[in-house]
Amino acid sequence: MALLEVSGLHKKFGGxxxxxxxxxxxxxxxxxxxxxxxxxxxxxxxxxxTGALAATxxxxxxxGAPIQNRKPHQIAACGIARTFQNIKLFHDMTALENVxxxxxxxxxxxxxxxxxxxxxTLKEERQIREKSMELLALFEIAAYADVEATSxxxxxxxxxxxxxALALEPALLLLDEPAAGLNMHETAExxxxxxxxxxxxxxxxxxxxxxxxxxxxxxxxxxxxxxEKIAEGVPADIQNDHDVIKVYLGE
Amino acid sequence: xKKLLPLAALIVFVIVIQKMTGWTDTRFYLTxxxxxxxxxxxIVGLCxxxxxxxxxxxxxxxxxxxxxxxxxxxTTINLIAYQDRVVIRMLDGFGLLVAGQDIYGDAxxxxxxxxxCIAAVVCAGTxxxxxxxxxxxxxxxxxAMATLGFGIIIYRIVLxxxxxxxxxxxxxxxxxxxxxxxxxxxxxxxxxxxxxIAWGMLIIGMILLRNLIDSxxxxxxxxxxxxxxxxxxxxxxxxxFKLKVFVLSAVFAAVAGVFLTHYNGGIGPSxxxxxxxxRYVAIVAVxxxxxxxxxxxxxxxxxxxxxxxxxxxxxxxxxxxxxxVIMLFAPNGILSLNWRGYFLGLFxxxxxxxxxxxxxxxxx
Lengths: 251, 364
Fold this sequence. Notes:
The complex is a heterodimer. Chain A is of the alpha/beta class. Chain A folds into two domains: about 1-80 and about 170-250, Rossmann fold (3-Layer(aba) Sandwich); about 90-170, no CATH class. Chain A is about 40% helix and about 25% strand. Chain A is built from ten helices and ten strands. Chain A has helices at about 40-50, 70-80, 95-100, 110-115, 120-140, 155-165, 185-200, 210-215, 235-240, 240-250, and strands spanning about 5-15, 15-25, 30-35, 55-60, 65, 80, 170-175, 205, 220-225, 230-235. In chain A, a hairpin with a 2-residue loop joins β1 and β2 (about 15-25). In chain A, α3 (about 95-100) packs across α5, α3 (about 95-100) runs parallel beside α6 (about 155-165) and α5 (about 120-140) crosses α6. The two termini of chain A are about 35 Å apart. Chain B has a two-stranded antiparallel ribbon. In chain B, strands 3-4 form a two-stranded antiparallel sheet. In chain B, a hairpin with a 2-residue loop joins β3 and β4 (about 180-185). The longest helix of chain B is centred in the C-terminal third of the chain and has 27 residues, at about 240-265. Chain B is globular and about 75 Å long. The model of chain B is unreliable at about 355-364 (pLDDT under 50). At the A-B interface, α2, α3, α4 and α5 of A face α7, α8, α9 and α10 of B.
């Protein structure tokens, strides 16, 4: 059984079928990519899976349990983390603090315990800090731990967002255009990073424009066009698929 | 350790001020300092909601008023006429009522101050909860308007209700005994004691909020301010955290309201007025929004000046003016301005003037 199963997912914005009857599965341990021209419904699909948008109809199941139309924080609690196309870091917080927020679901101090500074919360805080530093080190940005996150360079901000998502210890990581705004060198780095994340045992689903990246790292690819799935398969097949070539290059 | 230093400095400051008023025979300042401390308690609570969680509230005078008015009404309404009713007998059985005599020697039966105090705070917290569920779904200007509307409703209710004394407010509110030997009262003989109660409450409140800000919850609140979408994606239940912090700050406001009412021996409708809410927001802004110490210092200084009558009849106008100036010239609060650099710059420039013979503005 696939880790994430999308079946018959449908989203209508007024008369527009942004996502139209899309079905696919993501196998555990795989890197799967969703590609398609601008306006194909890739980000909408992402927002449906993460609960940012409510589906018009259709099912999303994770680990066999239905998760469609839940709130984003509930989806996160199921073990699904995400990054954003236009990086969304918390301003006025350091890189380290940003990642520490990612430990929210793995810690439990509430209002009362925090205000009273209960002894066990100190231990919890220390664990949160250590784990977050480890993640910053993994992305080679530990040196910037105490720098305000939004003042970092673009690539470093993306790394902070990755670290924050991984801090959830998710089973599935959704990446919304991880290579957007990066140069060729940085894109190659991101590609290595995604492979490394997969090797940590985390399943990855990504939306991406950069073909070379997608073809390099994906185990499987889903192609969307005008909200509909037009192809699904391994990179080699997708590259030679008549419909896909038509959508990207024209007749 | 670094966290304890400012607190220790504050405690020393509080003691030194009290001693100084003793030595210089200016004990009358203690009254306004006591009142300013209670207002500052409300302001640090509001600071957490506004500065850290990023949710504006223009209705905090309403929570202050709910606290003050409920406690005042319960401790002054004479229940003697209803003393045979089952409810009253039950309350009496639980020890929640106290009997006594009014100034004319007539028998009175009122709710015990401690019970009234708890009821008032619970009442304000519950109101914040019920109000917060729908209202905190709003953002920015819409949230400001909705909380403003709440503030106006509370103001009109206290002005129109006979139990709240209409335009006269409630007077003859009894002292609030806290512990044996510690009573919140405006009695002249208890001025020092009450000064320390007020500042003690403020310091305790400050410690609790500082701890909160530096915790998992504090980070979650700040993340909501940064990006609600991203906060949700990391598993923060943004709706619940916003509601909880709103209720918490309402409780701070209500506690301030209760204590100040018992200290003053009364409360009037001006405490519920919208201009009071605007004033609190202005003070948090002057303090630098996400800056608990800034809110505390400005809360004390500005309220003290206002209570001393420095701003005269232009009191509300001054706070409105402060809000405009701060928003225009120092949106991060006046403490965030580069004061050190400014003064160093003054010296450096005056030095240059001598060397080069140029005027400060650079013209020859």
